[in-house]
Amino acid sequence: MKRGGVAALAVLLTGPAQADERRSGFDYMGPETQLMQTDDMANPGMLAVQAGMRLWQETAGDAERSCESCHGDAEKSMRGVAARYPAYDATAQSAVDVAGRVNLCRTRHQGAEPLPQEDADLLALVSLIGLQSRGLPVMPDPDPQMSQWRSRGADLFDRRMGQLNLSCAQCHDDNAGGHLGSAPIPQAHPTGYPIYRLEWQEMGSLQRRLRGCLSGVRSDPWPYGSDAYVAIEAYLMQRAAGMPMETPAVRP
Amino acid sequence: MWAGLVLASALTAGGALAQGLPEPLPALPGDPVRGRAIVEDRQTGLCLLCHSGPFPDVPFQGDLGPDLTGVGARLDPAELRLRMVDSRAINGDTIMPPYFSRDGLNRVGDRWTGETILDAQQIEDVIAFLATLTQEESE
After folding, report:
1. pLDDT above 60: residue A24
2. What is the torsion angle, in degrees rounded to the nearest 10, for the CA atoms of residue B122, residue B124, residue B126 and residue B127?
3. Domain containing A239 — which CATH number?
C-alpha cells in the first residue's frame, strides 16, 4: 500500500515513465528456452555458426576465392555488419539483407551461383556474420535511399491482409504481450535472426518467420527474396534501433 | 455479396438496426451442438485463439477478446449475428476477423479466395451455441 503510494507520487513528480517499452521475443520465452539461447554449448544455432566458419574459409565458384580471401577474419571484418542491415547496394539499386549480400558476393566476386533462401549453407554464413554483432545495438544503415524502403515496410506492417484481415501492427503493436491461444505475442523485433526455432527443429531466416505470420492470417506469402520482405526487414530493424542483437537466437 | 448487402443495409439504417442483423442467414436453424464444435475447433472457428470462455476441455485459450462466458445473456441473436458476420460494423479497428464478409479484404491467399471464413450454416450454428451461454461465471 505504502510503496504503491510512494511510487504513484514519484510518477506525479517526474511525469510519465520514459523507460524503453521495447522487449525482445527472448523476454516472452520460458526460462528453459532462454537458457538454451544464452548457453553457447546448448544453443543449436552455434552449430550453424561453426558450419559458417568452415564455409567462410572454403573457396567457391569459378574465381576460386573464399569469403576469407577478401574479408579476412570474420570476427574483425564482420563486426557490427548484421546490426546495420538491410543496407543499400548502389550497384543493385536495392536494399539487401545479409543473405542477399552473401549472394551478391557469391555472384559478383566468387563467380558462384547464389544459394537458395533457407539453404543450410546460406543460413550458416548469415549466422556466422550475425554472431559478430551479438550484444551490439541495432544501428540502421544511414544511406538516405533506405528511407523509402523503411516507409514501404511500415505501410506493409500497418496494412490488413489475408482472409483473417489482420495487420502485423494489430498483433505486434496493439496486442503484444497478449496470448493467441497459448502463444504470447512478441513485439516482432528482428534482433535474433537467423534463429533456431523449436517448432521448425532447424535454423530459419527472418523471411521464413514473416511467411509464417502471413500464412497465419491466410494470405499468400510473397516469394522468398521479394522486395516486400526486405522492406519489412528494414522497417523492423529501424523499429528495433538501439536494441541489442542476439543472433543466433532460439525461439519456440 | 449477399453478406455485403445485408451489412450495408444494417450500416446505413443506423441506430438500433446497426447493432444487429435480425434476419437469419439462408440456412437451416442453427444447431448449438455443431456450433460448439466450431467454436472449440482451432482450425475452423479459431475463436479460442482470441477468446476464453466456459470450455474446460480446451487448453490454451487466448486473451485478446472478451471472455465469452455469459455472452448469450449480454447479446441477443441479432447482435451476435452482426458481430459474427462482420465485427467491423461495430468497431472499424476490430481484430475479430469478418467471418461472413469478403468486403475490403486484401491479399487473401489462393486457397481462400472468394470464400468466407465460415459459411451461412456454420454462422447460424455458432449463434445458436453462443445464445446458450447465458450463465455468468459462478464464483
Report:
1. yes
2. 170
3. 1.10.760.10
Q: Does domain B2-130 bear CATH number 1.20.1740.10?
A: no
- A14 assigned to some structural domain: no
pLDDT at A101 over 50: yes
B28-43 residues labelled b (16+ CB within 10 A) or e (exposed) = eebbbebbbbbbbeee
> CA A126 to CA A115: how far, in whole Å?
12
- Mutation site for A-interface testing, chosen from B41, B93, B95 by largest number of A Cβ within 10 Å: B95
| Cα–Cα distance for residue pair A126/A146, rounded to 1 Å | 21
Phi, psi of A4 (to 5 degrees): -60, -45
Mark A169-195 as b/e (b = at least 16 C-beta within 10 Å): bbbbeebbebbbbeebbbbbbbbbbbb
Q: Does residue B114 sit at the A interface (CB-CB below 8 Å)?
A: no
> Of A114, A183, A190, A185, nearest to A153 (Cα)?
A190
Catalytic residues of A: 213
Q: Which of residues 71-110 of B touch A (CB under 8 A)?
A: 93, 95, 97-98, 104-110
Domain ranges of chain B: 2-130
For residues A131 and A118, give the distance between their C-alpha atoms in angstroms, rounded to a whole number: 18
Q: At what angle do helices A120-131 and A98-105 cross, to 10 degrees?
A: 110
Contact B106 A163 (CB under 8 A): no
**Domain assignment of residue A195, given as a range:** 19-252
User: CA–CA separation, A158 vs A178, rounded Å?
Assistant: 18
Q: Does B46 touch chain A (CB under 8 A)?
A: yes
Average pLDDT estimate for A91-104: 98
Q: What is the pLDDT of residues A188-243, one digit of tens each?
A: 999 999 999 999 999 999 999 999 999 999 999 999 999 999 999 999 999 999 99
- Quote the pLDDT of residue B15: 45
